[in-house]
Amino acid sequence: MPPVNTPVLHLDLTPAQRDCLDALPLTGHHVVSGPPGSGKSLLAAHRAVHLALTGRPTLLLSRSNFLRQLLRDTLQGLTVPGAPVEAATVHGWIQRRFGRDAPRTGDGWFDWTALTHQAAAPLGENDAARPHLVVDEGQDLPPGFYRMARLAAASVTVFADECQRLTETNSTLTEITDALGRTTGRVEIAGNHRNTREIVSLAEHFRTGGPGPRMPVRSGSLPVVRHYSGNQDLADDITTMAARQPKHRIGVIVSSLRTAADLMRSLERAGLAHEPQLYSSAATAGRYRDLDLARPGVVLVHRASAKGLDFDTVVIADTETDSGTDPTAAALRMAYYVMITRARERLVLGWQGSRLPRHLEGLHGWVMKK
């Protein structure tokens, strides 16, 4: 007899989010989709805790190590005695499951076909060791991963939004569902509990497809397009923001880690109330790898690592680096859709140079220009 779905209700969930969890049986594969701000990462953590209560090993997976840190911190607040859940990267889990010599393809990514064959070989043996997998930002993983995971795991629950695909090896919701099998359940979660109406309205300008989201009730100030004379001018403005809102988290999203390092040096000299933090995926440990994402202050992060994060204020610092890109290109639009929707309250799109970047033209009514 399959286990009864007895959810653990937590006060930080809305009724719609609780209904979403209640709709997910504790067996089988499932895909949960929703727009930015609908609480997918939070729901993924709750889902993992529910599955862990069955007594089976449970992992909460993400492609990004930065997102793994956020999910780990979220899980710490949801701890249920006797039902541990581990937040891990997909890369880390694959190496643990298949060994550090897990087969790879020429591009350096894993050979999913070979891993699928390996996962199928011991099928039926030691079934109790097969984990429940919960995947956050699942659109950033290829269909081959899910074909392997359906064999290597007892169940797979994927939280995804195909309008936020930022990697070269990504999947649509249909591809994920097909890879997991025709019995895969589909659930949608609506609503936006993060952004203001003004921020969502601007994000809609960059969205690449799918039905429009339900607009948030909460309103705020218009996003700002701001010209900077150089990186020091940019750093000075960030310093002013931090001084005016000392309890806020300010995310500075850049397209170049060189720019991030330059800004970090300026911000460290500025004597901020909270030491600025910089995340680098190239770091293996230490201050540029393990960040405290709960405390106030400035966090500098590359746009490739911004998925799943949120900040009171977001500064997209160097939009001029996209000046040579076709403003209608899907990859560019998805990138800005993701970056814009990281902002809870305030958004600044900064640029340097002599001409406004083309993709920031025609935004009259959605932004203020300074």
From TrEMBL:
<dbReference type="InterPro" id="IPR027417">
    <property type="entry name" value="P-loop_NTPase"/>
</dbReference>
<dbReference type="InterPro" id="IPR000212">
    <property type="entry name" value="DNA_helicase_UvrD/REP"/>
</dbReference>
<protein>
    <recommendedName>
        <fullName>DNA helicase</fullName>
    </recommendedName>
</protein>
